[in-house]
Design a protein that fits this description.
It comes from Campylobacter magnus. One of its GO terms (molecular function) is methyltransferase activity. Keywords: Methyltransferase, Transferase. By secondary structure, the protein is an alpha/beta fold. It contains 22 helices and 17 strands. The strands form five sheets. Strands 1, 2, 3, 4, 5, 6, 7 and 8 form an eight-stranded mixed sheet that branches. Strands 10-9-11 form a three-stranded antiparallel sheet. The longest helix has 21 residues, at 181-201.
């Protein structure tokens, strides 16, 4: 019965279907390899996603790895139907979407094995018996060297959020999340807004109000989040955060071993703090205990845990000095030229210069080893702990390709996806990039993107849109001082579209959306 209620609420308020970089199988493969495991290469892997919504997290991966086979399961019939329609329109053949209860999935797949299992945004939002079924599914359906990625809400960070969630649910208890999710959210946010306004004007300053006052003032922190996220994270019947150490213990009971986290969820500079390292060494014996300590110190609220079969645990490389880099690729997630200056006196300076030059592409770890000599692991630790650089490890390379007529074009394998995104049939899909990230490409931008076919220069594209405005007696607009101002002169329109197209091209270059013309 509870699963029926969950399915109904997700059909009433569809979750946006898009990609998550932390679940990109090239990244899962690389992180597992770093830790000494040997999962199957992504280009021929079998992948299962639990709670796939409409398949948005699989589309880019299927486009990149055309010989891999992807299967997605979800409890919502509406989501699966929407996903199948999208896949047919896009023309993707290597994704299969199934409407299936997680508790029935192990029996459904029988003796089938998967090299990668993904469960993003599911585990904390189902009751404990379904959580147990997810872990058992991973244990029984993973291939011998396979890995699973499960994301979930964690304590202590969610302890504070729970006060907000509980108040929102209490204030909107007369409205059903299954029948009227949007109205329920409006009532809940209205209650938070009242609390926030009340605490601004109340001068009693009773000390016992301190914690609730801080927590209930969360309106400013959550009001910018997508409404579908707020409905399911803050108003849904199920939301069961767990301490990291308890999650690992449950995984071990199911026959699984913890490998790594796909995204550090705290200030990485604490990793290099000598006093903290000494306390950690003296007080906690296991890696899990040490990570749990960091969660306490940083109020961690979310994790992406990578798991493997328990029989593989003895092969894990637990010390960063022993990580296996050979054959992998490394890149930075965001470019900051200040890094060159800040790293001048660091052992990792030459490496960060190479990574900045390659951005948004990658360099091979073999090349990184040549740059750093015998100190690659040390330099990587320095980049993370001292310079707070967000790194990405991948099992496939990415190249920095700029758009230039005659030399490059928008990726041909993405044309079907882009046409679907621009169509009226697209309701809740966004552009999922080759790195399995997300880019908010507006439908109105798609016409410009289609012109980036290697035959049209940026000047050609700008001229096209200026000509359209002149021909149709139309004008773009800007918001100036809160007012909509039309850009009517041809010269101003040329400057407007030049800026807009330049920004779009730059964004698409950063997302590795171009390919060279052979």
């Amino acid at each position: 019965m509870i699963n029926d209620a969950i399915a109904k609420s997700y059909e009433a308020a569809n979750y946006a279907s898009h990609a998550y970089e932390q679940s990109f199988i090239a990244n899962l493969h690389a992180r597992a390899r770093l830790r000494g495991l040997n999962p199957k290469a992504p280009n021929s892997a079998k992948v299962l996603e639990i709670g796939c919504a409409s398949g948005g997290n699989l589309i880019a991966q299927a486009l990149v790895f055309k010989d891999a086979q992807f299967t997605g399961v979800d409890l919502s019939k509406a989501q699966i139907k929407n996903g199948k329609t999208a896949l047919e329109k896009i023309g993707i053949k290597n994704i299969d979407l199934l409407c299936l209860d997680i508790c029935d999935a192990t029996a459904h797949f029988g003796s089938q094995k998967f090299d990668y299992i993904i469960a993003h945004g599911v585990y904390s939002w189902v009751p404990p018996f379904v959580q147990k079924a997810i872990l058992e599914l991973c244990s029984k359906l993973l291939s011998k060297d396979g890995v699973a990625m499960i994301s979930y809400n964690v304590y202590p960070g969610w302890k504070f959020k729970e006060i907000t969630r509980d108040f929102m649910r209490f204030a909107s208890s007369d409205v059903s999340v299954e029948d009227e999710p949007e109205r329920k959210l409006d009532v809940a946010l209205g209650a938070l807004a009242f609390e926030q306004a009340f605490y601004r004007t109340d001068e009693t300053n009773d000390s016992y109000q301190l914690v609730t006052r801080q927590a209930k003032a969360a309106l400013g922190m959550i009001s910018h989040l997508p409404r579908h996220y707020l409905i399911h994270d803050y108003l849904e019947l199920c939301n069961y955060p767990a301490y990291f150490c308890d999650f690992v213990a449950d995984a071990q009971d199911a026959g699984l071993a913890y490998v790594d986290d796909m995204q550090l969820c705290f200030d990485t500079k604490v990793l290099g703090h000598e006093a903290l390292r000494q306390y950690e060494k003296a007080s906690f014996a296991s890696r899990v205990q040490k990570e749990q300590m960091h969660d306490f110190l940083n109020a961690t609220a979310f994790r992406h845990s990578l798991l493997t079969l328990k029989e593989n645990e003895s092969a894990l490389k637990l010390d960063y000095k022993d990580l296996e880099f050979s054959g992998l690729f490394i890149g930075i997630k965001a470019k900051s030229q200040s890094l060159k200056e800040r790293s001048k006196n660091c052992a990792s300076h030459d490496l960060i210069c190479a990574l900045l030059d390659a951005y948004p592409g990658t360099i091979s770890c073999d090349e990184a080893s040549r740059i750093t000599g015998e100190r690659l692991a040390e330099c990587i630790f320095e980049l993370i702990s001292k310079l707070d650089v967000a790194l990405c490890f991948s099992s496939v390379p990415f190249n920095a390709i700029k758009y230039e007529a005659g030399k490059s074009r928008i990726r041909a394998d993405y044309l079907g996806f882009l046409r679907f995104l621009a169509s009226p049939e697209n309701k809740n899909f966004v552009l999922c990039t080759p790195k399995n990230g997300v880019y908010a490409l507006h439908k109105n931008d798609c016409e410009a993107v289609f012109m980036m076919d290697g035959r049209h220069s940026k000047a050609d594209i700008v001229a096209h849109f200026v000509e359209l405005c002149q021909k149709n007696n139309a004008a773009p607009s800007r918001i100036i001082d809160g007012k909509k101002v039309l850009i009517e002169s041809k010269k101003e329109q040329e400057a407007y579209f030049d800026e807009a197209i330049s920004t779009l091209i730059s964004d698409l270059e950063a997302q590795c959306m171009f390919e060279s013309i052979s």
